[in-house]
Design a protein that fits this description.
Blueprint lengths: L6 E4 L6 H12 L11 E3 L11 E5 L5 E5 L1 H8 L2 E5 L6 H13 L1 E4 L5 E4 L5 E6 L13 H4 L4 E4 L5 H12 L3 H20 L13
Parallel strand pairs: 1-8, 1-9, 2-5, 5-8
Antiparallel strand pairs: 3-4, 6-7
């Protein structure tokens, strides 16, 4: 990230992609706050232009003014743009994003053809849940994958590793950790297969 590279984080949901990204951002800037970070896009088929590049806003007096979207703000300010659900974005918006990544510039056709040139420091951090179980997602085109200098693949820990992590982070008893991890893996397996699941949960009173 310090080198200004575009990075793709991909893998099943719940494997810590955003958590790792936030840790890395805090390494770059200890004052980083994910709740107020303005350079953020959540990909979806219903994403509007204003949610990515910007658009005109109509005021009560009948006048209108242009408002930059998060991509344009990140380019102008030289910041890292976080894109959640990259593979839910429409082809049109994806092409705009790729233009910014490839050439460091985009043309705002709706805003008098203004050309936005990325300042030093601009880069894209994208998250993607890849797999047939994720409804509404698309497989990422190899041409898109090539735009990312670094690709980080995530997966779930083994049951033994997950139990150890759970005990370290929460202090729960071994028996309860074993039960919780077993339930979690049953839910994941059912989710991947599209099946329902009935879970009888026993929690130790200790």
């Amino acid at each position: 990230m310090r080198a200004g590279r575009h990075i793709l984080h991909h893998g099943p949901t719940g494997t810590g992609k955003s958590f790792v990204w936030e840790l890395a951002m805090r390494e770059l800037d200890p004052a980083f706050d994910p709740d107020t970070y303005p350079y953020f896009v959540h990909g979806s088929a219903g994403l509007e232009d204003i949610d990515l590049i910007g658009n005109y806003v109509l005021h009560a007096d009948g006048t209108r003014s242009w408002t930059d979207g998060p991509l344009v703000r990140a380019m102008k300010d030289g910041k890292r743009l976080k894109v959640e659900e990259l593979n839910r974005m429409s082809p049109a918006h994806l092409n705009v994003l790729l233009g910014a990544m490839d050439f460091g510039r985009i043309t705002l056709a709706r805003y008098d053809g203004q050309v936005v040139v990325a300042a030093d420091g601009f880069a894209v951090d994208a998250m993607a849940n890849i797999g047939l179980e994720y409804t509404g997602t698309e497989e990422i085109d190899p041409a898109v994958m090539r735009r990312f200098h670094v690709k980080v693949e995530y997966s779930f820990l083994s049951p033994v590793e997950e139990v150890a992590l759970l005990r370290t982070r929460t202090g729960v008893a071994q028996r309860d950790a074993d039960i919780l991890v077993r339930i979690a893996n049953s839910i994941r397996d059912a989710y991947r297969s599209g099946a329902g699941i009935d879970v009888d949960l026993y929690v130790s009173p200790a």
